[in-house]
Amino acid sequence: xxxxxxxxxxxxxxxxxxxxxxxxxxxxxxxxxxxxxxxxxxxxxxxxxxxxxxxxxxxxxxxxxxxxxxxxxxxxxxxxxxxxxxxxxxxxxxxxxxxxxxxxxxxxxxxxxxxxxxxxxxxxxxxxxxxxxxxxxxxxxxxxxxxxxxxxxxxxxxxxxxxxxxxxxx
Length: 170
Description:
mainly alpha
């Protein structure tokens, strides 16, 4: 077992809990996790694979500019890339994306908002094709932020699943 993977699970769990409570991921937590991972993986973290894995989450900066993702989420993904490498980060991204999509679909179905969201999607597509897309969708019954999704939670779940697959199932 690589201790850097265990440190990643602990840091992601703490980040997810903190994000759920305060809507922020503290930089101190991420920097401490990065420092411990760098010490544990010395000198392996100095590879091109790790550099690519740390830089890959920067592709999410347009989502940050559109307020669809937080800066802490990008930094958390960079920490995952540092600990897991490029292949591991791609596994984490794929699993987190599937988990986040599943959770969003579950919320839409249980809150009976799937039809309204699909109607908005079709209006958005037709409006975009005609050059006049509608504004952002905000449900009438909830404008308080309860619909916000914390990406740190599916990232933590994906990191935990990867850890369990690598070390418990093997």
